Structure formats: C-alpha cells, structure tokens
Amino acid sequence: MDDALVTVNWPQAPVSEPESLLIGSTYQDIEAKADMVVTDASSWLFAGTGLTQGQQLPNVVVGEFDRYVPGAPGPTNLDVVAHSVVPNRGHNYSDVTWYAVDGGGGVFASGNASWIANLVDTTMVPPNVIPEPDPGVSTALLRVMENLYAVIGAGPASATQPSRGSWRQMYTGARVVQGIPSNAA
C-alpha cells in the first residue's frame, strides 16, 4: 500500500495528525443551527461590511461546524473573529478564524459548512439548487471573501495582516505551554 494515496480522516493512520495543525480549528459536529456572532468587528476581514461587535447574522451556522480548541496542537497566533454558540449541539461553538504564517501566507476557516451557501449569487446558481441570498448576510460574507482574496492575492499575507492570537479573549480559561495552547488547570 502506498501511504501517499490513502484517504483517511486526519487523526487516522497513516496521517495520524489533528487537522488543527493545518487549519487551526477542529471539526465538532453536524446539525448545527445557530446565528454567527461577530466578536472582532475591527478585524480587516470585516472591513467594509458594516458589521458591528456582537452583531448576529441569522442562520449562518448550519450543518457541520468547526471551532478552535484550546489544548489542541496548532497555531498559537490564531485570531477568532466570530465565536458563535451552537445551542442545539451541547452549547458548543463555531469559530471563524484566521492565522498568518510567519513570512508567508495565511489560513482562513469559516467555522461552518453553510458559509458557501450564504455566498449565493442567484445570477450564477439557480434558487432550486441553493436558496435565495439572506438579506444582510450574503453581502457581508461576500465582502469578507473579497477582503480575504485581496490580502492573499497581494501576498505574503503575514506582511500585511499578521494574526495576534485573539483566541485568548474567547477562551479565557486557556493558556499556552511551549507554544501549544492547553486548557488551564
């Protein structure tokens, strides 16, 4: 068997690594139904969106969702720009995250599988495939993507939009040990 050709979930052999090492967040569950909550409206990702601190975007977190997990291996300079309670899944969270790699690019994670559906442009995708855009949601999320593409396209992203580790504000009971976040005792 050629390990390079094997398809598995991240923690399974032969990969045997958590996805948080690459994307900074970790799969949590499915069947989420929650609003996305903006927790860092000053982030460059939200520039020009008109979104404000604490603003809720209805029904953005639907279906599969991910979050930053303190204690999991991964970047310690990760920024959480939206931190949304997912009440129907044990009061878990969905996090929209960004981190920049020193001297290089960056990694953006939307925190949920429904993000793409909220970018709908009904001139390109018929409404029987993806529903109509949500007023006040689709336009804002499209602007986030424009901001992201502009920064990554100009590269290197770390030079203009470094990440600072704002996850600490969302997860105040966590600390960093040897560069890896861990749960506080």
**Structural class of the secondary structure composition?**
alpha+beta
Beta fraction: 25-35%
Radius of gyration from the CA trace? Answer: 17 Å
Largest sheet: 3 strands, antiparallel
- As for the number of domains, it is 1
List segments where confidence is low: pLDDT < 50 over at least 5 consecutive residues. Answer: 175-185
Percent of residues in helices: 10-25%
Distance between the termini: 43 Å
Oligomer: single chain
Number of helices: 4
Provide mean pLDDT, rounded: 86
Give the neighbour order of strands across the main sheet. Answer: 3-4-5
Shape: globular
Q: Kindly state the number of beta strands.
A: 7
- Return the string of H and E elements: HEEEEEHHHEE
Describe the protein.
By secondary structure, the chain is an alpha+beta fold. Helices cover 16% and strands 29% of the residues. It is globular. The chain has one domain. The C terminus is likely disordered. The protein has four helices and seven strands. The strands form three sheets. It has a three-stranded antiparallel sheet with strand order 3-4-5, with no helix packed on it.
Quick structural overview:
The protein is α+β, with helices and mostly antiparallel strands and 185 residues long. The chain has four helices and seven strands; from the N terminus they run αβββββαααββ.
Topology of helices and strands:
Elements: H1 20-23, E1 26-37, E2 56-67, E3 79-86, E4 92-100, E5 106-109, H2 138-154, H3 157-160, H4 167-170, E6 174-177, E7 180-183
Antiparallel strand pairs: 1-2, 3-4, 4-5, 6-7
